[in-house]
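@here heads up, posting the sequence + SMILES for the zinc ion run so it's all in one place. Ping me if the SMILES looks off, I pulled it from an old spreadsheet.
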Amino acid sequence: MVRRAGRRARGPVPARGSVTAKRGTSNRNARGSSTDRRRRRAWLLVRFGDGRKAPCYRCGRLLTERTITVDRVTPGAEGGTYRRDNIRPACGRCNSETGGQLGAARRTLALTC
Ligand SMILES: [Zn+2]
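bot reply: prediction finished. Complex C-alpha cells:
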C-alpha cells in the first residue's frame, strides 16, 4: 500500500476576504497566550505612555495595566494582526463600541467621542 504525503482533504480552503471568513473575534492562536497578551499590554503602556499609564487612543482616558485593552488599527475581520505596528491602547468601552464596525464606519466612529 502506498501512502502519499501531502495535504489531507478537509474541504475547500476559503478565499481571502470571502464571506465565509470569520469576522470579529479571532481565534486563540492569533491573540496568543495569556503571557503574550500581558506582554503586549505592557509594551503598549511603554510605547504610548510612561510605562504605568497610557491614554485611550479615542477618549483619552488614562489606562493602567488592569484596564488597558489592545485595539487593532486594522481590525481582525479585515485581516489585521497583533503586530506592534497595528495595535494601540483603548479602554474597554471604546474598544467594544468600535469592534463591530468595519471600514469607513469604524474609522468615523473611532474619531467621535
Ligand atoms: Zn476610550
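MO: The first strand starts at residue 54 and ends at 55.
MO: One more: The chain has four helices and four strands.
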